[in-house]
């Protein structure tokens, strides 16, 4: 089995950090209350889940 080179490991680490930063940044931007964008609100129906009887 051939070992992975250090350059590949560093590249993978940097790509993981960049990806994490983009995802977390997008999440934070999307959660901002004072967003000036004109977004559409989606309302979902309320769903109640009840466990089935055991007997």
Helix/strand layout:
Blueprint lengths: L5 H25 L25
Keywords:
single chain; about 55 residues; mainly alpha; 1 helix; about 0% strand
Q: Could you explain how this protein is built, in words?
A:
The chain is mostly helical. The chain has one helix and no strands. It has one helix spanning 6-30. The mean pLDDT is 81.
- DSSP strand content: under 5%
Q: Give the helix/strand class.
A: mainly alpha
Main sheet? none
Helical percent range? 40-55%
User: Whole-Å distance between the termini?
Assistant: 55 Å
SS summary, helix count: 1
Oligomer: single chain
Please provide the ordered H/E string of secondary-structure elements.
H
Taken from the alpha-carbon principal axes, the silhouette is flat
**Rg, Cα atoms, Å:** 22 Å
Q: Would you report the number of β strands?
A: 0
In short:
This protein has one helix and no strands. With 55 residues, the protein is mostly helical.
